[in-house]
User: Fold these one by one.
Assistant:
Number 1:
Amino acid sequence: MNGLERKHDFHTVYDAQAMFRLILSATANPSREVNIQPFANKLYGPFPHLLAVAMALLDNEVSHCVRENSDLAEGIAALTLSPKEALKAADFVFVTDQEMLEDAVHRAKCGTLRDPHRSATLIIWNHSKEKCALWLTGPGIAGAVTWHTTKLARLALQAREAQGFEYPEGIDFLFISESGMLAAIPRLVRWEDAV
């Protein structure tokens, strides 16, 4: 029996609510990582960590786009009622390939001055092994905090900064590691390399 034929153990109400609370906690505390591995363990097939996030965030009222990953796209389609949408209009964008990252950041919707919350959230598979340290400032951070992360996350933040979004426009990031740790970097958080 392969992973796609097994029944998922993820509870669509209780586990989804618990996952949602973890994501909210990470978003309210940028750079603080939360462990979603126990929820990923309840899902089968490719990218169970991203499927767990999809189960918590997607429903029939929000749209999504999966960048060039048919296995993940099929999993999300099977588990949520979220409609597929083009990248430039999707509410949530899933990126598993570093080659697709900068294009996704460039083309994702950034909200408007009147409705900045109508921006996209990019859910990024943060599988890079190259490490770096960044200083973060902004909402949810008292002063500044050092975030130990990967060069892939730095690339995403650099690509976002290059867009020159007008305050308070922007895009939000959720970074998910292979070990099941999730970190959120909201659109108004600023960064620089830690010395």
Number 2:
Amino acid sequence: MPDERPLVVITASVPSTQADASLALRKYVLYAEAVARHGGRPLQLAANATAAEREAAFGTMDGLLLSGGTDLHPARYGRSIDGSRDIEPDRDELEARAWAAAEARDLPVLGICRGLQAINVFAGGTLLQDVADHPGPAYGSGPPARMHPIRIDPATRFGRTLTDRPATLAVNTYHHQAVTANDLAPSLVASAWAASPAGEIVEALEAPGERFVVGVQCHPERTEFTPAAFEGLWAAFLTACRAGRAAVGRGS
């Protein structure tokens, strides 16, 4: 029988190019587990995927998950390097094409950490390239240095997805770049904010309208450091993927 679960493409770096390949693989597994936990079929698509693999994935996916990772090249938003580091142009290219494919097919998109920043850049926004003293230690080396509070607009799509619709939550911190109000793409709206050494930063953003396009700056796949309310975000994303699949009557 065909697998009726919605297919979610999860973008990723090439594990062998990372400082710790085994850790990179474990990070991917967390995204895949979250997708599967809510009834989806995860498909990892790394930056070294062939043209044929990309075409097949983009043509059959029911949703796109832009995962966390290294910094986007500032040239993507018309800036020179001023704090960005560990740049991977091949991944930037993969995700730009994945975003365009999702846009063309009106598919749901969820962005996590780098993924939030990618959504903002691909939609025409910019980034603050370094927030001094903001990130905690690298994932896998202990708990985040800070679990900082975010303020949530409960009237937004992001706010409505969270279980019990809290006005504030404490979230993990693993990022050194951010989106400020001045960086936000004109076509997007902020749905959560946090204080930082650089001032107010956007902790969640989304596209207004019916299509599901949401980015969060924290890492909700890391459930040991994430409020349970974020399970509602995963559920809403997979519901959107499932609805789109049903609308076109696709099986595989």
Number 3:
Amino acid sequence: MPASTAESSKAAPAGAPGFTPELQMANMLGLCEAQMESALQESDRAVDALVQAFTCLVDTTRSVNALTDQLPVEFRETVAVGLNQQVEAISKQMASAVVAFQFYDKLTQRLGHVRYSLSTLALFVCDRSQAASPDQWRRLMNTLRRLYRTEEEREIFQAMMDGISSEQELGGATSTHKAVKPGEIELF
């Protein structure tokens, strides 16, 4: 939430001057948005450390491959075979790590969409003229609908707009969404 809105909407006790349900709702939505931002920043730092470690593993694997090519012919059949098997195992683990990074990227994109939605909603509900207008609500929903890039996000958004509870949608999500097979990479 922008700083000017956050400053102007400080929590006030019920009945205090400046208290409105809209401001309280905006403050709570701002809190949710700030918590998600903090969690995303922490996870980004952890992923950065993993990326550095992953890069070192790739470099080390390449070095081991280069060293096996330099072995004398009599050792290549025994030592090189074992080393190549180990390098292949490491390569498979790195491929699994790439898939995990892709899912992390999808997660951060989706959380970014949620953060934007919360921030936009907080600003929207503070403007009573907008919040009281069905046309403005439709405009807000259309704006938020355009955020969602994956089929899963669009399906969840539509289900929620159709009045399905979040528990019902989450319960059905596992059966309606395409599962990714092991070793298969889904692009987001």
